[in-house]
Amino acid sequence: MFLTLRELAFARGRFALMGAVVALIAVLMVLLSGLSVGLVNDGVSGLQKLPVTSLAFERGVPTDSAFSRSVVDSAAVARWAERDGVTDAAPLGNTLVNAKSDRGTEIDLALFGVQPGSFVDPDPAQGARLGSAPHEIVVSATAIDAGLRLGDTVTLDRIGTELTVVGVLDGQHTFGHVDVGYVPLRTWQEIRAGAGPGDPVPAHAYDEITAVALRTAPGTDLAAGDEAAGTASMTLEESFGASPGYTAETATLGMIQVFLYAISALVVGAFFTVLVIQRKPEIAVLRAMGAATGYVLRDSLLQSAVLLVVSTVVGVAAGVAAGAGLSATPMPFALDLGAVGVAALLLVALGMVGAAVAVLRVTRVDPLTALGGNR
Amino acid sequence: MTTGLLLERVTLRHGDGEDETVALDDVSLHVEPGEIVAVVGPSGAGKSSLLAVAGGLTVPDAGRVVVDGVDLAGPERVRARIRRTRIGYVFQSNNLLPALTAVDQVRLPLTFGRIENPRDPVELLAEVGMEHKSGRRPHQLSGGERQRVGVARALVTRPGVLLVDEPTSALDRRRSHEVLALLAQETHEHHMATVVVTHDHDVLRHCDRVFEMIDGRLTEERPAMA
Q: Considering the domain boundaries, does residue A207 fall inside one?
């Protein structure tokens, strides 16, 4: 510590430059983390807030497009409901639509069709729950941010179905980057069949749902339930992958983050490699005077640790401040302190790995070089 | 027990086969505590090799080195401990650490590990006439001042053996004499065995004995000039 602190203070310009680069990486890391969480929220927050443990889709439907392609016979709900360990089973419909409010607000909606009174029928923070009236909709608070108001009438494009906003949910409920709106299952089935007001509705439309929403006790045999109901169930977390673009987005951002960590380790390693090369004469003098290899290693690693921790803290603080600004924009950005904390720890840890590889060079510095010329 | 510094029939070779050179050729030297000896000779004669072997920085191919009663044969870890506790090094100028003030340069060896009965860095700095510049860093000191700080740094652990490498190479005549006088005084007062490697024949009068090294052999011994 004696030498570490004095060298940091003496070469503060050089260390500040190195620290600034690490801090900028930390800022980028916080922004990426926020973007990542924001995109996840935008993609699946509507699913995350469903009070379900699993969803049973049509058997054989592709996993990554289950929500858009799955068609399950509504009789499967009853078969699931009678299974051991299944606490609740209810029909769930899912369709993406374009709409316009009576005040001119154009909005895309992910319509979730639910049986009013079932366990997936949401309890809104404002207004009323879905009732007996067929053309009601309960929307996410983010739809209010987008311009809808309680009491507005929303008209769906093409088919002209009108829905009245009767309730507003608390917080963000989105699916595939689109605001969620809950409608009565029967209304959803008509919309899905493309039947507008006065249009005939095919009889089979009222037998079709997207999935069976399930709430099960731990250890429930889902495979046996699938066998009995003719479905293919996924846990709620697995179903996120069936949300549009979710897997591609999270994989892309995950890869960017992995590259960022690798770059940070390389950058820190490169800095300390140059530093050790520059300090070789000093290190030779230290070792000639009897400083143990461990002393020199400790000194160099402590420098790396101080540099990484201080600059990461500064970078994270700057990133959080910048992120607070971004949260107020339409950009899908949400700061999760846990995710930021893990990312910061990873940055420090991988930076230390890079520094450790670099400072191992000190063990190869020959103390003999302290004596200088060849006489 | 042999006190001071003893080199007994030491041979050190560099390279292999046809490229092999003999840096030290059957060298024997005993420096008593309280004695300061000079080793002079042309470049490439083996003076640095002598210091390297005497200070445990290199293990000789043959012969033995005893520092203050301790044989230097052993792994680097053990030799590093002996260097830390029993040997003081005064390097050529510019071997001070740029980040440290004069007083911190002197404190530095005490941070390497436990040292029995060290000297007080502040008092030592005063003893070498540098108390008024204790807060200065190397780039704020003259060549002579840097060398004085280097001497204080080498003495702070109370070494039994002091090895000095070209102490006057960057100094003018007056400062060269000051530094050698300081080394001689410290050697006599603190009973160290001191070896000074130098090109500077002008400072030999401060030494008790003078050796000449040519082609790796301590071939000539002559009394120091008065």
A: yes
- Cβ distance B55 to A295 less than 8 Å, yes or no, reads no
DSSP-derived secondary structure letter, B61: S
Nearby residues of A63 by Cβ (< 8 Å), 6 or more positions away? A234, A238, A241, A242
User: In terms of domains, do A78 and A205 share one?
Assistant: yes
Q: What is the CATH number of domain B32-57+76-223?
A: 3.40.50.300
Q: Give the gyration radius of chain B's Cα atoms.
A: 17
Q: Which residues of B167-185 are buried (b: 16+ CB within 10 A; e: fewer)?
A: bbbbbeeebbbbbbebbbe
Helix pair angle (A246-288, A337-359), 10° resolution: 40
Task: Answer for the pair A283, A361: CB distance below 8 angstroms, yes or no.
Answer: no
Residue B226 has a pLDDT of: 46
Measure B102 CA to nearest chain A CA, in Å: 13
Q: What pLDDT shows up at residue B78?
A: 85
| Domain membership flag for residue A235 | no
pLDDT digits (tens, 9 = 90+) for A174-227: 999 999 999 999 999 999 999 988 899 998 999 999 999 999 999 899 999 999
Task: Establish if B40 touches chain A: CB-CB under 8 angstroms.
Answer: no
Q: Which domain holds residue A115?
A: 60-229
Interface of chain A toward chain B, CB-CB under 8 angstroms: 2-3, 6-7, 9-11, 281-282, 285-293, 295, 367-368, 370-375
Is residue A147 domain-shared with residue A258, that is, in the same domain?
no
Cβ-based contacts under 8 A for chains A and B:
98
Same domain, A80 and A129: yes
Grade residue B225 by pLDDT with cuts at 50, 70 and 90.
low
Q: Inspect the interface and report whether the beta carbons of A282 and B97 lie closer than 8 Å.
A: yes
From A176, A195, A229, give the residue that closes a domain. Answer: A229
Q: Tell me what percent of the residues of chain B surpass a pLDDT of 70.
A: 95
Number of domains in chain A: 2
Q: Which residue has the higher pLDDT, B122 or A131?
A: B122
State the nearest Cα–Cα gap between A291 and chain B, in angstroms: 5
Last residue of a domain, one of A170, A199, A229: A229
Could B80 and A291 be called an inter-chain contact, meaning their C-beta atoms sit closer than 8 Å? yes
Contact A94, A268 (CB under 8 A): no
Higher pLDDT, residue A370 or B53:
B53
Question: Nearest CA of chain B to the CA of A287: how many Å?
Answer: 7
A12 and A116 in a common domain = no
